Amino acid sequence: MRHLFSKAASLAAVAMLAFTVAQPAQATQSSEGAQRDAAVAPAYFEMTDITRATFIVKLVKEPEINHARDLVSGATDNEPHVIGRIKKYPAPYNPGWSYRFDPETVQFFDYAFEVCDATVPYTEEHLDEAGGPFLPGLIYCPWTSKLVREVPAP
Fold it and tell me: Is the pTM above the cut of 0.90?
């Protein structure tokens, strides 16, 4: 019974995360929001995790870009970790990896459910399993993720 309850709780958590990550993308579909977001130049940040692997995150929304810059400068330490939906194909700005964050879904967090946690290399090694029991909904939240610097646009 406990096992069933923990599985149900995990699935509910993933659904809640998916809904949370999807909300900002839906909110920018208004014409005013879309025009404002279109005027923001993308920013790129190097992220690392406990394995010391580096991964480039593209940000396209002004609040997230500002928060990322505050994290890198040390102006804040709130919500230091990256969460978002991954795409299972490489991006030219993130060499060496076969996946990337969907820039429209990237947000920051303090705490998240374990079901979306994995290291950068582990995610690469198990990318074919992502979207099933591993990283349900393709929501990825590496708990040890940390932005280390802003990098130039490719």
Answer: no
Instruction: Measure the CA–CA gap between 67 and 22, rounded to whole angstroms.
Output: 19
Q: Report pLDDT for 125.
A: 96
Give the helix ranges, DSSP H, for 28-61.
Answer: 31-38
- Hey, what are 131's tokens? 């979207």
pLDDT in tens, 31-42: 444 454 557 899
CB 109 within 8 A of CB 87: no
pLDDT at site 38: 56
Distances from the Cα of 151 to the Cα of 58, 116, 124, 146, angstroms: 10, 26, 22, 14
* Whether 43 contacts 72, CB under 8 Å: no
DSSP summary character for residue 94: S
